[in-house]
Amino acid sequence: MHRLYLVPTLIINFVIVLVPALLTVVLAFCNWDGISTPTFSGLDNFRALLADSVFWSALTNNIIWTGIFLVVPIAMGLLAASMLLIVRRGSNFFQVVYFLPVVIATVITARVWQGMIYSPVTGVFGMLDRMGLPVANPLAQPSTALFGVATVDLWHWWGFLCVIFFAALRQVPQEQIEAARIEGASYGQMMRYVLLPAIRPTIMLMMIMTVIWSFLAFDFVYILTQGGPAFSSEVLSTLAYRHAFYDLNVGQAAAAALVISLFGLVGTFFYVRLQTQEGEQ
Amino acid sequence: MRMVESRATLTVSYIVLGIGAFIALFPIALLVLNALKPAAQIVQSPLSLPNPIRWENFTNAWTHAKFSKTFVNSLLLSGTTIVLVCTTCSLSAYVLARKKVASWKIWTFYLLATTTAPIQLYIFPLYFGFAKLGLINNVFGVALIYTALYSPFAVMLLRTYFIAVPKELEEAALIDGATSWQVFSKVMLPIVSPGILTVALIIGLNSWNEFLIATTFLQKADKVTAVIGFYLLSGQYSSDWGEIMAAALIIVVPVVVLFVAMQKRFIEGMAGGSVKG
Hints:
- Chain B: InterPro entries: MetI-like, MetI-like_sf.
- The complex is a heterodimer of chains A (281) and B (277).
- Chain A is mainly α and 281 residues long.
- In chain A, 74% of the residues lie in helices and 1% in strands.
- The longest helix of chain A has 35 residues, at 53-87.
- Chain B has helices at 7-35, 39-44, 56-64, 67-97, 104-115, 123-133, 139-163, 167-175, 180-209, 212-217, 226-237, 241-261, 263-272.
């Protein structure tokens, strides 16, 4: 009887996620344009992918992206969260302000940065340029495009981490903090020996999620640069999307999707392990 | 925490927090400021105050982004997703939380793993399948995809609410002769209703803001969501940044108002799965 309670969730999940995911695995070994009958092509898609220099630069970009997001927003989040812990008064106000970028749609965030900040005509960068400060639109240069996009995603993201870290820090036992203070611990010592070790599981979880999400990064790249200029900001998910819906090379898109999933799978393994460990305690 | 901080520490902390607030608010301020200005003033300086305020931006944005159609689509899509997620997930979360089936471990594990499944892993076959079935441009079809996408998160969050309910309540109801369905619907559901509300808020926010699936599966200009309507307006139909920012503001204001009013629930729910005490 209780088994029936699971049925709706699982049916929807199987139809939308599991079956198409298995089909993607099959399609990765097929040649398919989305219309005619797929034909088996062995490892051709993977060979084509590995021979494509854009694939390698996309993979490199994903790795750079992961590196940036493992450091910058986590550091910003931890710093702000520990400051919230110190001041107490007004912490709720700051928390809400930091969280605002998280609740704004990615398309809107992207357009605000594109038009109001980066644009050489309508943006702050253009205004500074006219005032004699030589700042160029980062999205227009191949060398800076990826960082221009990452900055927007950082802005959208760090507040989420701050709020989560603050929630975790508030659960650190009072006595530990008091004891460290009586011993005369400085801010650095307090962080290093008391606070950071205490919220280690939360930081670990956020780092694992960062790795998984970094390989899924899509919205901001697609909206801001479409992977350009000259594929300089292409990431694996935009590459796969382009193959499927612009080149109608679904087989190769599926192959790229499998590569993305491979990285996700490693992260998922650690994520599930961490979550079930916590659950059993 | 009852810490008595020195003035210096407090001052430094507030300065750091203030810089953080400035970073978070600066682009939002630009959004609001320029929504009120004519395009010519924005070109002069995006930082200047609007003089005079150009209210036409909002009426233009409303018609050009087809908001009278696309807002209805967004509401339908978010509403359907919320109803589907809350009904199906409270059922399965209850069963998994109370270990009512022998295979609860497998399914919990499976749903945890799908929380992190990349959309790219299933979107391509799904798209061509939906195209075959004529479900492209159908908001209810997209609601079904969102339901699958957000269910694992919702189940995991609701599960924690069900686990927190004392077992004795359930047992007492069973002794009084309640059927297992009555135990679920009359005893458990009312107790976990705050959790369901939290899930509804977060799922509603996510469906309202979602981009990748909406832009792929909804293509006709009168079938898209408000967010995609804005995307089309800003990408193709308009280069008047005053109008574009006005359209952005129209979409953002209801979300921000709801968020500020319900901040505790939002933050608790979003952090709920991530913070381990």
